[in-house]
Please model this.
Amino acid sequence: MERRFWIAVLALAVFVGLAGFGSTAVENPAAWEASAAYLASLPEGFNGMKGEVLKAKLDAGEPLFLLDVREPKEFSAGHIDGALNVPVREVPKALNRLPADRNAPIVVVCASAVRSGYVTMALSFKGYTNVKHLAAGYIAGWEKAGYPVVK
Amino acid sequence: MLRRVYGHLLVFFLVLAPQAWGADVQQSVDAFLAQLPTDFETVSCKTLATKQNVGENVFVLDVREPDEFKAGRIEGAVNIPIRVLAKNLDKLPADKATPIAVVCKSGIRAAYATMTLKMLGYSNVKDVVGGMLAWEKEGLPVTK
Model:
């Protein structure tokens, strides 16, 4: 009797474990509604902020949270002063390092505005209301434009 | 008095509380970011052009606005503007494993599309880095 009980417990543990493993799937039909809503409401400029606009805001001392989602190697080779580096794959586990106020302005930076696009959309899904990305990315949108970088 | 308190609470929940999507969507978003491959789901213009030249079956999805599309596009591309993508999935290949290359002007709209399609089960989607700007800079053929 007792053995049967432990077999049941073991089976349950395996089931929960498998269910947990399954929950790492990217595919999820429930994402349709969220995606459709985000895409349909994209403003002109598609949530991009041009380098010159970002530069002006930083110069004016506007409170902006800069989130650089490139890999540490890319970040240390040159970045915008004051940016926090969280590589794109680690963003889901680093939300506690972002502003607690979900209406705070955040600008996401990567090399060529692909990774920052993913993070801009992901943060919007998580309830952040004021997220933009550096248009054209760090290389074309900031570095090549000759704006100041720190190493 | 009590009604006023409830009123304030309602305002708090409607306006101040973060409006986030459900746990199932969050799990999908987190998995997408955490499991990004080393190419971050991108393909360069040159690689895409080579694939097309050797006759590989790549579905080119152009998510720009119709007027941008008309002004110059990759041969054979299908146009679904980004804002109406989710409502036009029937224009995409029925086989969700078909290679899809998403292109826009600079790559950002394609990033939104790539993430969306991956979450909807399309398993082989890539963002054309730099978009049509890069495609034209490389001198690759443009259809008008």
